[in-house]
Amino acid sequence: MSTYIKNKYQINKEDISYEIYYENMEEAKDIIFKDLKNKKGIYLLYNNLDDSFYIGSGINLYIRLNTYYYPSRLADNRLISKTILNVGHSNLSLFILELYDINDSINIIEREQYNINMYLPNLNILQFASSSKDFKHSPETKVLLSEYAKNRIFTQETRDKLSKMFTKENNPFFGKEHSPDTKLIMSLKKQGINNPMFNKPKSQEFMAYMRSFKSGGNNINAKSVFVYDANTLILLNVFETKTACREKYSMTKATLNKYIKSGLSKDGKIFKEGK
């Protein structure tokens, strides 16, 4: 394909020379990650609504392109992130301009700069390629960046767009599950002073709200009880919890459990535990 550029900040799809092309980034997401695993290269994100575009590179395209599907990354205020939020992945096409094996010694930054010079992308704020691979922030800068991230406030419009874009199957973690090791690490990180609620009193309203989820049939450990006539085996009553059954028939916890376990009748009734 021709690489002739009509003017400085405008390009049509037929002007792009590429190795792989994906028309719809939303529909092709799984294929993209399958194709680009263990690959490095140069890519171009193309907005089909206004022909604007962005050029980037990745020493691991699988990881690099994954970031365009994560809410935390799209909330970073970059021009390309705002574009994705505004138009959605379904209106973006992905061109892989150059593709290499992940172990290839090619200088990716030089190749990115070559393509930036050729196409002059209008969604790249800086018209020069760069990499943070060997860049080290000072301790003071790290603190400032951390505070910025903590205090950053997103508009309701941005929150709504992120929510809509990453709901259910659109969420990168949809259908996946953390490993036991990961769950343990996450749990340990939230213990003691690391827990955001550490030493903070809970309101009476909140406590009442939480209790409502653990009482009666809402308790995940609650066991229902079926009561039958000992002679006819006709179902007489159903209780959502053992507590409700004990209160009805004036039994202790031990007594009810005894008759449930033995299957013997008490006062002409048989008690069976449900799930």
UniProtKB/TrEMBL annotation:
CDD domains: GIY-YIG_bI1_like (cd10445). Keywords: Endonuclease, Hydrolase, Mitochondrion, Nuclease. SUPFAM superfamilies: DNA-binding domain of intron-encoded endonucleases, GIY-YIG endonuclease. Pfam families: GIY-YIG, NUMOD3. GO terms for molecular function: DNA binding; endonuclease activity. Residues 38-116 form the GIY-YIG domain. To endonucleases of group I introns of fungi and phage. This is Putative GIY endonuclease.
